[in-house]
Amino acid sequence: MAPAHLRSLCLLALYLTTGYGQESRFSGPLKPMTFSIFEGQEHNQIIFQFKAQPPAVTFKLTGETDGIFQIEPDGLLYHTKALDRETRAFHKLEVSALDAKGATVEGPVPITIEVKDINDNQPTFLESKYEGSVRQNSRPGKPFMYVNATDLDDPATPNGQLTYQIVMQLPKVNEVMYFQINNKTGAISLTREGSKELDPIKNPSYNLVVSVKDMGDQAGNSFSDSVPVVITVKENIWKTPEPVQIVENSTDPHPVKITQVRWNEPGAQYSLVEKEKLPRFPFSIDQEGDIYVTQPLDREEKDAYVFYAVAKDEFGKPLAIPLEIFVKVKDINDNPPTCPPTATVFEVQENEGIVSDIGTLIAHDMDEANTVNSVLQYKIVDQIPPYPKEGLFLVQTYTGVFQLAKQSLKKQDSPQYNLTVEVSDNDFKTLCHVQINVIDINDEIPIFKKSDYGNLTLPENTAIGSTILTIQATDADEPFTGSSKILYRITQGDDEGCLRVDTDPQTNAGYVIIKKPLDFETTPIHNIVFQAENPEPLVRGVQYNASSFATFTLFVINVNEAPQFSQHIFQAKVSEDVAKGTQVGNVTAKDPEGLDVSYSLRGDRRSWLKIDPVTGRIFSAAPLDRETESLYRVQVVATEVGGSSLSSTAEFHLMLMDVNDNPPRLAKDYTGLSLCHPLKQPGSLIFEATDDDQLSFRCPQFTFSLGSESLQKDWEVSKINGTYARLSTKHTNFEERVYDIPIRINDGGRPPLERTVSLPVTFCTCTEGSCFRPAGHHPGMPTVGMAVGILLTTFLVIGIILAAAFIQIKKNKGTDNVESAQTSEARPLRT
Ligand SMILES: *[C@@H]1O[C@H](CO)[C@@H](O)[C@H](O)[C@H]1NC(C)=O
Ligand SMILES: *[C@@H]1O[C@H](CO)[C@@H](O)[C@H](O)[C@H]1NC(C)=O
Ligand SMILES: *[C@@H]1O[C@H](CO)[C@@H](O)[C@H](O)[C@H]1NC(C)=O
Ligand SMILES: *[C@@H]1O[C@H](CO)[C@@H](O)[C@H](O)[C@H]1NC(C)=O
Ligand SMILES: *[C@@H]1O[C@H](CO)[C@@H](O)[C@H](O)[C@H]1NC(C)=O
Ligand SMILES: *[C@@H]1O[C@H](CO)[C@@H](O)[C@H](O)[C@H]1NC(C)=O
Ligand SMILES: *[C@@H]1O[C@H](CO)[C@@H](O)[C@H](O)[C@H]1NC(C)=O
Ligand SMILES: *[C@@H]1O[C@H](CO)[C@@H](O)[C@H](O)[C@H]1NC(C)=O
């Protein structure tokens, strides 16, 4: 082959190779090198040009050339045929440099040719057909067989990476896949649906087509292969056994085999797991899968058991879902009937009829309900006491309902019966006790011992509270109950309610007692009828009859009695100004015996009244005055005329109504009013008026004026309010003396009353604004007490001098204190 031709291919080959030394990509000195070349390339490809170093002139190639690799004397390394990775993946070559004599001067140097894979091989299943089998209900995802394909290409590249897939399943119902394959390992297992639905009875075998392709996950240029797989479905013998029935209280030697479970293959390890936590768990399993009951069971303790059987592999991993084992305990009649835990007591009223139910005895049997083992029968075997006769009661055989058999009961016969009742099931008998209490009812009426209690005569003034008669009735019902207690009622002859009857709770005796005074004049004869009753109503069909009634006659005899006023207090109201002799009221009294009555007054302290002894009319006998006594109280006396002159009294109250009969007056003593002399400015004084008439119904509105016209040039009176007024001077020119100023006060009443009062005003020489005060003695404001002391001392020293000037007030010396106080109140104005 011509070197020129080789060179023309050189560039292409060098581009397609990798892994050269760093000095140059295409040529260089001889040294260890590695080249990577894809397999399947065209032949005559240049790999590298070694440069000879003198004295070397040529090269030699040895090693695994397989006749494919050659080297030219000028150092050009090339291969003459396509490489095949699957034949040899690495070619270990050696290159030596030779001198002209053919002696090695360099090397041999290792040169490695790595053949890179291309996808030039298709995957192939190792077998042309696969067969396998699976148990129904096998765990989903657990492999039961493998398919296996190979590919000669490099498994480190996608070329040799295989992916498995099920492409077809026959038969296929509703598009549901029962099988799945691991796309990397070729492991075939059941899907969840397959685990549930596979059933050899329905379909004993399936055909799959499984494919394998290379190039891993990459799409595109891949080779593939496919293979049929036949899968046989085998029956699962790991199945829930039928429910088990075990007869309770078994006497067989235990343990007793009751059922079994089997795993599909031998070698499984079996165990039992409780579903509910029990105080004892009387079951076991052996390594054959046989299940035993270990001791006798008691249905009355627990009537059913549920637990699980588990199969595990040798590593303790569950092989399949646990199986539920159901055990029912079958009843035998091993329990006698039992009486109720508390005593059975029925109560029966005396008048209970013979058909009605009087009670039910409920006995129990622990054995299974609604079986002959627990159906009970009742029978009365004894009755205590046996009177009035045997067989008073009957019981219904299957229900335990009791009834009266022959007649109603009477408490008098026996208040209580004790029955013995035989209760039986199929095999056992038990005696139970029933107590029957007879309840009294109010079926007896009270009956009087006497129907007529005769005549009794009493004076009308017989004391209240007196017991005048004892009556007696009896009642045959149970003592000390509302059925036998007796209440006595007076149904006739006592319309006024003068009598009452109290019952003795022990004896039921009735005591007839006077409650209100008897009165001969109203009712001289009482024809009394008593009725005896029970507080409880009588039962239906029983009624009070004549035996519950009794009669009695009470004669009241007359006693002379005092006249009786129609009222205890008589009241009247008149104006205080009624004329003498006016009738102000009247009183009336009647004598029970009808005698005439004479009236008189008692306690007429002011002799204001007189009374007509015959008519009881009362008249005024003098002027009345409300201001003296607003409510005048006297007693009126009514006396029988003739007879025993018995008398009685009542009150007469006369209320006096006010009239305006009092003129106004000064409210207090105003003798100390004073003004300083000489007067520097006009002064004034305040005074108050009052009125003795009843002020409560109006505020007094007095008017004030000067009593004399001639004073008007010096004085002036002005009203402050309804009761106060001011007296003022009109100028300052007054003498040092006392002026008596007449003031007219009108009360504005109806009719108006008026009075002229005299107000004495003293003009005096003032010291520090007050009369009679020595100068400079008391620098501060003197108290009232000190003022009084000063005043008295002053009187003693200069009394005689003053006596002449104040002769008019000398007679009022006893009220000096008042005068002093008033001075400070009605104080003269200071200049
Ligand atoms: C598949 O076959 C190859 C070659 O016989 C073997 O090496 C490999 O372990 C097998 N794989 C499986 C999963 O059986
Ligand atoms: C192979 O299976 C895995 C998980 O089962 C999945 O993630 C992957 O995509 C599958 N590869 C192919 C090529 O189907
Ligand atoms: C078992 O039966 C016998 C009679 O057969 C009885 O005496 C015993 O009480 C029963 N045991 C139980 C737990 O019921
Ligand atoms: C019924 O039985 C009770 C309780 O044993 C007893 O106290 C009572 O006296 C008995 N009555 C009769 C009438 O025997
Ligand atoms: C009671 O009085 C009546 C009338 O006065 C008289 O007829 C009767 O005989 C008297 N009865 C007795 C028991 O005294
Ligand atoms: C009233 O009834 C009682 C029985 O309840 C009877 O013994 C009595 O004779 C009766 N009396 C009359 C007057 O009918
Ligand atoms: C006696 O006073 C009553 C009111 O107490 C009166 O109704 C009657 O008219 C007065 N009789 C005379 C005669 O005044
Ligand atoms: C009337 O006037 C006097 C003096 O000013 C005063 O004390 C009194 O309270 C007054 N009375 C009324 C009812 O206003």
UniProtKB/TrEMBL annotation:
Gene3D superfamilies registered for this protein in UniProt: Cadherins
Q: Which InterPro entries match?
A: Cadherin, Cadherin-like_dom, Cadherin-like_sf, Cadherin_CS
Q: State whether keyword Repeat applies.
A: yes
- Residues in Cadherin domain copies: 57-125, 126-243, 238-339, 340-448, 450-565, 566-666, 682-776
Q: Which GO terms describe its cellular component?
A: adherens junction; catenin complex
User: What PANTHER family does UniProt report for this protein, alphabetically?
Assistant: CADHERIN-17 (PTHR24027:SF419), CADHERIN-23 (PTHR24027)
Name the record gives this protein:
Cadherin-17
Query: Gene name?
Result: CDH17
